[in-house]
Amino acid sequence: MSRVLTPAFSIFFILLQLDPRQIVEEAQRRTTTQSQRYEGTLRVIDAKNKLTEKRWQYDRIGSHGASKAILRFTAPPEVKGVALLVLNHPDRSSDQWMWTPALNRDRRIALQDRSTRFFGTDFSFEDLEERDTNQFDFRLLGEESIDGTTCWKLQSTPRQAKVSQYTHSYLWIRKDNYVFAQIENYNKDQLVRRAHYSDIRNDQGIWTAHQIDMHDLKRNSHTILSIEKLQYNVPMKDDAFTREALSRES
Amino acid sequence: MRCCCALLLIVCAALDCHSQTYTQRGSLETQSTFYPQEAKNDRTHVVGESLFRYEGFFNPSGLVQLAGGLDFRIDTHLQVDRDFKLSWQDRETRRPIGAIRHLSATYHKGPVTVEMGKQFIRWGKTDIVTPTDRFAPRDFLTVVDNDFLAVTAMRFNFEKGTNTIEAVWSPRFTPSRIPLPNQRWAAFPELPPGVTLRDAGASFPGGPQSGVRWNHAGAIEYELSLYRGFNHLPSFDGTPRFTSTGIEVDVRRFYPKIIMAGGDVAAPAPWFTLKGEAAYFSSTDNRADEYALFVIQLERQAGEWFFVGGFAGEAITRNGSRAADFAPDRGLTKTLLGRAGYTIDANRNIAFEAAIRQNGEGVWIKSEYSQLLGQHWRATLDLTLISGDTGDFLGQYNRNSHAVIVLRYSF
Question: Which of A46, A111, A112 sits opposite B346 (nearest CB)?
Fold first, then answer.
């Protein structure tokens, strides 16, 4: 009896592994934390290879579709204090507000404006959202190698409720640790942005890419985000992620 | 004094074992303004100004923040006082050499935030003209390039989910700073021969100001606000005196009592965001007008472009008996307003702003090129063109077209 059950179970398990939604949900589950904090250095390299450096502090409470995040620029000096509040929702696009100290006012980032670049970087406002798997349909396309590691290649398509600048994306998820290796975002047939994840380390039991290279193919510029001083499950309060808190320096 | 004790108590009560942080930022800015034409009351062609600004933010605990900012400035055109003192009230006619730009203590716990001290309070959603922004006096010494002044107030904010309620009480009035009478941004009416004007100072109101607003940030964001206090923009009363040389009119500034009821809305549409703001101003002072101001604007960010276009309007329901007033907010009504910005790359951007009066009697166009030089320096070139009839709010500055070069070092 057990001789029959073992191969059957193995086949079932393989099939389970090949369910694209389960792959993405497993990747999401493995990165689910109570909070996250890091200091990010952004090196923006334009088409003429000119380098600009910016730094931000990133705080997030909750995970994925149920999270809230504030990122606050700490350098260069003239953008110090500029901050973005992102309130993610499991069933729809996030709400975003940007605080500019010079104006003493926050500005809501409208949905139709989310495809624009965030403060001179190659990340768009939409790229700063935390996405929930339930907002997408997935299709497994096969396996490919990225940086010498075997990855599942999937196609994700936003569902109706999700308004996105991208019509579809290709995701490469590493088979060894379920970390994203690469994401290519398309608008119809045109590749708009490519995010390449590298320098993957285990922080507090969570495999995390410490370098994200976002390439804007239209402008042929890219931004390398290096993640430093990363901490998970830091005690944070919900009231630090409000519009009122956005205007407070920290 | 009572206010200082309260601030101290809050700080002491909140000093627990929480990690303390201090952040700071500042800048040194030098600006040169070139006016190709002489004005009737001002022959100066070049004005130089330097401003040192420092801001610090101290979090003694997770619940409290102390924020402060200092301005030190000097200029070549006597827009800045020459007597050194550190100003708190911003009631001087000239800019003070030293000023406490803001100084406040904030206590926050859960959904509640209380801020006390000199602070910036901004209401409303529209740009250029903001009818409900009643706690935001400005420095209008150079009318078209103005800067906000902080107000001394206590602010209570309750934010829960998509709703925010804010109540503000300001014990002491902060007026807007208006153009100096002997300089080009002060425009006077044509006077008959033998009549002269004399600045008789200002009567500052003594009572407090208060306001409350409710904001809902759903798919459509809207806000309702009420304000009771004084207009931070002055009106003028004239008292004629007969002298041996003719008639001298003593012109005194006063700040009429106003009650404002207003609201604003921001509704995203597939191609743009529609923003609207309107307010009705009534007054128990018969010298003041009663009127409504409204603004409708469309906003869109596409690629590297940012566009804002709109129309500001006014409807007067009662004409007051005051002789005149200085009202840039009302002066920019019945006007088409526009702003466009383009980010060339991570270091360079250009912007255009325009205000064109509905009757075509006044036009203001500003173009700006700005470039970041390294990590600390930014150079900006502004070109402003103003034309129109002298009877129009914008047109009266038709000899004040100018170019500005700004060099700023930020740290």
Answer: A46
